[in-house]
Amino acid sequence: MKITISKHEITLARQEIFESISPYFYHHNHKTIIGDKIEKAINLFPEYIFNFFIEKDQAKIEAFFNELKHSLKEDVSTIHLHPVFKRFEKALKEVYPTASVSIVGQQAETTRKLPMDLEYQFATVFASTLTNEIINTCHLPGRMYPKLNQIIRVRLPLYFKQLFQKGKTTIDLKVVDGSTNVFSVREELDQRIPSIQRLLEIYRRSYNNIDQVVQAHYQLYDGNFNVTFISPFSFGKSTLINGLLGEKMLNMDIRAETAIITKVVSADSNRLFVKYDNTRIVMEPYEDLPELRRKLQDLTGVRSKETPSEVQIHHHLPHLPGITIIDAPGLNSRHSDHNQIALEAFRMSDLILFIFSPTHIGEVNFSSQIKEFLEQMKETDKKYGFVLSKLDLYSDDYGVIMKEMKIVLKDLDSNYVDEDLFFISGYFALYGKLLGNEKMDLHEIRRNRGLFIIEDDEIIMGRGIEKHHAESLVTFSQIERLEQFIRERGEHYAPNKLNLDRRKSAATGVPSATETTASI
């Protein structure tokens, strides 16, 4: 028997009889199932179903081949492998040690538009873009993002081929949420949608040098939902953003007097981009945050020869899929260009969050600037919200502060509603997440005298804090309300007040049969 893995399909050949195998397979708890019936289960179990052509996990690929070997009734003598799947060669030799494995079709490599590592990242971004478009168009709740994205990711080769060749594709599927609610989706997407058009243009280009590849990586997530935080200096903006991210990321040694826009991009790989005024972009991969801080120190520290205009950090943020957090320079600083840079960040945003300090509520200059921003937003689809910082320091005066804040907001914005206001402790959110995700030692948490737990009307500090108190720290911070507000971002053209349960009625029916297509 001969197995041929081309760029588009998997075929078995025995005595001039050819059979195609579905690229979809189920893999969970060391159990693997292959065959056409898996296609019908994609909607129900998307988190456990994978597509052979886009899978990178060697263990899953080896499990697929082992199951294929188990299901066949005869030995495999020859395996032909397309060059784009050379990464499977090791797994094939492990499973079929006596078979002859050869790479065929080398000439096809010259048609590749993207480098191999960028192509896989591109596919992940493309799936995220299609997912966001479906959430936006069909008004699905943001909580559906993970499952919907997984279904679209598995079926992406089909959608991509249709968009690339025909200019349009139909997303036809059902997705089930955690409460067993079934959402039916049948929506046509075409290449004229700006986010899709931009990605197709990236794919169509030929990349002949490193600068072009860097530019492609840099632009890859431009379709993310952009959330900008705006406030004067010392209002707790960096701490709040770090609490949202769950990482000590923004307390880096970038010159305080420099007007730099910092973007933290929810991505599938870790990369740092530093853009300079001459449009030159430096790209650096990094393994972890300590390495990222060192690279930032070298690229943007006091001793660096050039001042960057923008820092873009690609980081894996599974709780904020398809989102870019933008930290603009503080307003009302002694540097005249900071307000202009903040305005640029405002213009590139889909959601603006204005941060207030409890000790500066109603501050005249900041209030007048917010009024100007809100006036500019009247003719746009931008959303906005208001965030009070430093809840941990002013929790005893919670009621008084909130009452005063609501009075100020009613004056600033006649459309203001209470759901748009958040009182957050970025500090407690950060350390609660670091502890809960085991990114900080419990002893270090105990030594932090700024942290406390209120349990049964008793205040717990120091050695009394335990690992399970991580959830209490996060709950006290109220960061999860803000996260939900950001995630439920899909209804770009709805009023500012988010209607979390609004859905679009869609055609019912089961997804159409999926053909094998070009890998992406």
Could you characterize the architecture of this molecule?
It is a single chain. Helix content is 36%, strand content 21%. A hairpin with a 2-residue loop joins strand 4 and strand 5 (31-34). It is an alpha/beta fold and 520 residues long. Helix 3 runs antiparallel to helix 6. The two termini are 28 Å apart. The chain is built from 17 helices and 21 strands.
> What is the general shape?
globular
Instruction: Give the number of helices.
Output: 17
Q: How many strand elements?
A: 21
Summarize the amount of helix as a percent range: 25-40%
N-to-C CA distance: 28 Å
| Mean pLDDT rating | 82
Rg over CA atoms: 26 Å
Low-pLDDT parts are 252-257, 490-519
- Helix/strand/pairing category: alpha/beta
Question: Beta-strand level of the residues, as a percent range?
Answer: 15-25%
Strand order of the largest sheet: 14-13-15-12-16-11-17-18-19
Largest sheet: 9 strands, mixed
List the keywords.
21% strand, alpha/beta, globular, 17 helices, 5-stranded mixed beta sheet, 21 strands, 520 residues
Topology summary:
Elements lengths: L1 E4 L4 E5 L2 E5 L2 E5 L2 E4 L14 E3 L6 H14 L6 E4 L7 H7 L4 E4 L12 H23 L6 H10 L1 H11 L1 E9 L5 E9 L3 H11 L5 H10 L5 E6 L6 H9 L15 E6 L4 E6 L4 E5 L3 H12 L7 E8 L7 E5 L9 H11 L3 E6 L7 H14 L5 E6 L2 H4 L3 H15 L8 E3 L2 H11 L5 H6 L5 E3 L2 E3 L9 H8 L1 H9 L33
Parallel strand pairs: 1-7, 7-8, 11-16, 11-17, 12-15, 17-18, 18-19
Antiparallel strand pairs: 1-2, 2-3, 4-5, 4-6, 9-10, 12-16, 13-14, 13-15, 20-21
Helix pairs in contact: 1-2, 3-4, 3-6, 8-14, 14-16
